[in-house]
Amino acid sequence: MRISTLASVRLPAYVQAHKRATGEPAYFWVRPRWAAPPAARHGKTCPVTSSPLGTDLAVAIERANALNEAFKQWREGEGAKLTPGTVQWLFDWYRRLEKFTELRHNTRAGYRIAMDAVEAMAMRAGTFGQRRAAAVDATAADTLYRKAREKHGERQGAYMMQVCRLVWNQASRHHKATGIKASENPFAGMGIKSSSGAGRGNRAATRAEYDAYRAAAHELGRPSMAVAAAICFEACQRVYDAFGYEDPDGRISRGIRWGSYVPGVSIGLVQSKTGNVVTIPLADGTGADRVELYPELEAELARLTRGDDDELIVRDERTGERYTKDYVTKLHRRIKKKAELGADVKFTSFRHGGITEIGDSGTDDVRAVSGHSTLEVTRIYNKANQEKAVRIAAKRREHIAVIAAGAALDDSEDDTRSTAE
User: Fold this and answer.
1) DSSP state for residue 389 in the 8-state scheme
2) Same domain, yes or no, for 284 and 377?
3) How far is residue 223's CA from residue 215's CA, in Å, rounded to a whole number?
């Protein structure tokens, strides 16, 4: 259907018609200025952007109506009526399942972010969230993956597809309710690249960067931040366990407490993600044969005033209370700047660095220290685990000594060249 005059038809909201040089009208959906980011509704910025609609009036109206529906749902948020069978409706269905509500807060939050990003992906008409979920095929999934990588990067794009695959798996099990046919998942077998690639994403911090960070933390009067870095790098613990971040759901207890630390003997670590309890020996042997396995960690712990057994080791010096994530992020940036470290050194980089260092020392299995996989809590297994933890730490100390010797040799060669010059 074509029109010869722009005034002969009532256009959908936010649609503008402009004449081309040939006199032919072209249509555009124009997002109102008040809705442009950073403006937000219900915690989300507007997923709909200004878009050309083409020159065919019927097609333009169809596309505009889809965009207006997405725009309305953004404005109304959770109160918006979802169209049954759409991708947005399917995600809402999944979030109501016990399978989702029983997940931990961080996992649920990550899934929601991924789902919101998938829903907001712009398509030729409207957003992906408006598509019929049952009509999404392998071609559509591959196109979505490509668009997601272009907009959000390799790492987040892969995560978005993984969440879709999980949702479609559940939907196919309940195909009578969802309309998704059993055993048909367009997000399966995609060849998702979960790695962020060289130079992208989170990277491992080196021991030199870790040492510089701790020194800067002390210069700024923040020994607790140096201890947290040591717990992540030396003991390979996750950031939220090192800081003891509060669980919004109140389901799990995080943090390392003074009662779990026996100087020169051991430190007990609870893996809140897996529920594993990992006790790391701090020394091997006795007398002249005694080897300190984690001297850097213990040196940092010794700088703090020991609290009661049930008190967190890492606490905000200002208040004596546990740190908040926002304040740690702000403080981490200050310490990095003081230490002259790159922006790509995140706090998670210390754990990555510690695990990498163990691997570089020739030890492939780090579970006895990092607590990655589920462990059977039996006395026999725990004994074997303790022995392995000692071997891992001893091997790592040998590797650290090699690193130090190499650094000393480089310094000596530099001094020799300077003297010769």
Assistant:
1) H
2) yes
3) 9
